[in-house]
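Escalation from tier 1.

The customer reports that the assembly of four entities below gives different structure tokens on two consecutive runs. Tier 1 could not reproduce it. I'm attaching the input and our single run for tier 2 to review.
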Amino acid sequence: KHRVRLLISCQDQPGIVAAVSHFLHENQANIIQSDQYSTDPSGGIFFMRIEFELLEMIEPNKLEEKFKGVAQRFQMDWRFSYANHIKRMGIFVSQQDHCLLELLWHWRSGDIVADIPLVISNHPKLRDDVEALDIPFHYIPIDKTNKQAAEETQLALLKEHNVDFIVLARYMQILSPEFVVHYPNKIINIHHSFLPAFMGARPYERAYERGVKIIGATSHYVTNSLDEGPIIKQGVKEVSHKNNTNELKRIGRITERDVLADAVSLHLEDRVIVYQNKTIVF
Amino acid sequence: KHRVRLLISCQDQPGIVAAVSHFLHENQANIIQSDQYSTDPSGGIFFMRIEFELLEMIEPNKLEEKFKGVAQRFQMDWRFSYANHIKRMGIFVSQQDHCLLELLWHWRSGDIVADIPLVISNHPKLRDDVEALDIPFHYIPIDKTNKQAAEETQLALLKEHNVDFIVLARYMQILSPEFVVHYPNKIINIHHSFLPAFMGARPYERAYERGVKIIGATSHYVTNSLDEGPIIKQGVKEVSHKNNTNELKRIGRITERDVLADAVSLHLEDRVIVYQNKTIVF
Amino acid sequence: KHRVRLLISCQDQPGIVAAVSHFLHENQANIIQSDQYSTDPSGGIFFMRIEFELLEMIEPNKLEEKFKGVAQRFQMDWRFSYANHIKRMGIFVSQQDHCLLELLWHWRSGDIVADIPLVISNHPKLRDDVEALDIPFHYIPIDKTNKQAAEETQLALLKEHNVDFIVLARYMQILSPEFVVHYPNKIINIHHSFLPAFMGARPYERAYERGVKIIGATSHYVTNSLDEGPIIKQGVKEVSHKNNTNELKRIGRITERDVLADAVSLHLEDRVIVYQNKTIVF
Amino acid sequence: KHRVRLLISCQDQPGIVAAVSHFLHENQANIIQSDQYSTDPSGGIFFMRIEFELLEMIEPNKLEEKFKGVAQRFQMDWRFSYANHIKRMGIFVSQQDHCLLELLWHWRSGDIVADIPLVISNHPKLRDDVEALDIPFHYIPIDKTNKQAAEETQLALLKEHNVDFIVLARYMQILSPEFVVHYPNKIINIHHSFLPAFMGARPYERAYERGVKIIGATSHYVTNSLDEGPIIKQGVKEVSHKNNTNELKRIGRITERDVLADAVSLHLEDRVIVYQNKTIVF
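Tier 1 run:
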């Protein structure tokens, strides 16, 4: 199928939808789904995601070339995303398996459509789970002395394998700004709390101490402000005084993996537009 | 504000969105929100809801007149709905107060934008609650002998007050086909179960007997098949073996009122399109 | 019915349940429900709530007198609560009606069993809603200059009417330590965020700015640390980028009233034991 | 740890808790958790689950021998369950992997404490997933001609491996009464609908046709009435008109696996008591 998605953001103004849909009609595109949102119809920011099918596949860059006129007229920030380009996802993991296994299960069941050229870990523990599915596993240990070198090794691998975006599937390391800059809004993290509650370390311990009655997990894009990047998806579960910290962790794992898998799916389907420090999720 | 909504359904085919958005742009309409859905992009049914603002209010029927060309071209089923026409909602109630009070609270707080020209009940019990808000309350008793006459009285009142749609806020009577025919897809009921489980009478008693661990409520449009009309909204709550039938009823009331209020809001904002026996909810 | 509840906390140690249930059996009590929890079976803190029925009502203080032996043996913190003593609930409110109306609806429907000798407000706005149910409404305006005097007036009214506990139903004033000390773990507040996220003022505005995908409400006992008292109940609802601050408030009101009503019910049924800054909720 | 659980059901009557807790105290048992429920304190059925630790492990059958006196006095239905007897779980599966993988993940992570001596399937497809964890996989094809023989082979394997209970992890075959009789209230099924809605075949197709807005899954003990056995746990997820049958299945898989894993955990911890056709879940 020649399925394509067009993502747009620009100043809201009359005629955008007419111009875009006219353009698509002219190019024999059949609109499958269309979503739009405006922060304020008078002078706010307008966001749009249109998914359409072309009668026949167009040459690379042809559609982009043709669309430039429309885009310039409305001063759009825009991109086409082609469904036949399968996105390449790099997974980073430490010792906990639940988020990794969840992604791998969705991947093998076809719910998550992506290529996974590699999994990188600072521990060797999950090698077998990864290699059992014929995915290369790279063990790159990290300690205080080698962090910069380790990140350079990681980056080289990611570039070599043309990775489009990175998923931190409970990767218990903080990425340096030098690393993050290479993948702006393309590193998806899962934080094991209902952000902005319990930012930083040991959220379940702190949730237990505070005596909350609901715990959560948050998937967000990584920025240089720890746990403060744009939120993609959140989930929660009820708990009680009976649940000690270990039980909060056990209950939380279910939410973490669900929330992360949802966020990855949304990203893969180009449903997330980042604007300032927030997401529009279509 | 000159806000208008356009609702469309037709055979899916290329060019619909382009034609509609071109029409709106030509008529100086600024699109606020737009939703569409197709049962199948190749030859399915296409549904659309566009909310837009006109620069200045147009004469009655002018927009309709102009749109006819577009509509005929695609053989659309269509209508414009004008936000400055406040819908007139008739409420039917029996003895239970929770759904009625919920609607009245949302109404007085401005969350539900409607006129309520009358409340009709087969019991006098809730008169004070209604009249305290200066809404006329009509007590029309119903028994086996007078049902037809009572419904005729109800219909006369509804017509007299130009009621647009009816909400059965736990009205414990079954409306006759002769009544329903006057308000197709315009009578909203709340059934106190998670349909299609426990259709018909005494759902909480049957839920208790079955030992379900979740109970629900369902808001749907009334058709002549009892509890089988198009579902607008459903909600659920967890229960346990500890909850006897009375407690299921108490817990259920919270869900019933929430679900009904949501369904009424969706209807008021023209977000519900009925197709065959299902709803598209934008 | 001669229904009584016994609440216990003490150092966990062997024989507590045997001693308590033996005592109750000796006194012809039929146990209806019993819950217990221990922070750690070896040397932790043990909590228990037993609800039972007496064959015939016992003289005041007789049961307490008899139980002293058991209590001393295990160095218990304990109290009996008699269901035939209907608790007296004072409600504080400002201008928003939803939490107040929720409590009043549950009260008139019999779901909340309490006496409401008075509602106190720093605004006259909700007088009619309260007086319509024959509940006295006291308008006590508060500004920077009269806060101490106002609180003294409030306290005098509360004492005069033998109020057992206070519900802050969106009362937009901070109570002074001098006030709070009179009702330790007996003032129930509803905070309009998912604590500990967004403590303090304007939580919905801040939730909107952060771009969270779920909002919440928290009911807790009031202490002298703002929004940091023991949490009784929390609730959440999903939101999206489409919801502006006003819509977050509208959506949040539903959660706030549900969470507060649940917390009040739990308190009324003596289901909440406070230990350190957390609650055990049976 | 010498942890033991005692499960009791009997006619409600005064003195049960006193007698049981006295017995445990006498035998140096430290109660960890205790739950009870009575269908009606005057003459209903009383249910109890007590989890306790013995100072030192008692000889087999010694506790049972001692308890007989108490049990006879109240005509109890009762059993002790010893945590050091790890329950042996047989898993039946067909071609879908999600419920199987979920159980295996919880098992390897230690959340589910059980021995899994075998997995039986009527398809060879999931052999590798099972054998990768060193669990024997038995492929027993079933068709119309060999059902009885296949069930006999299954039963022989189950007996040979001392299987305590069976989990049907989306096993798409109906067990015969001759099979079920061997494992009364010991076969846990997951049905892919919110029972009693959509009993029988193709629930997602029927949910789509009905246009429900919430789908669910139900875990229950298998009886000879298809999908009518005692419900252990239910879960739900919201859906919309946008979700076709395949998407309902995809969404439903998440609920199915969560609900089944919860039900299996409850069973393993002896938290489920079946009475008539319902469960008490402590």
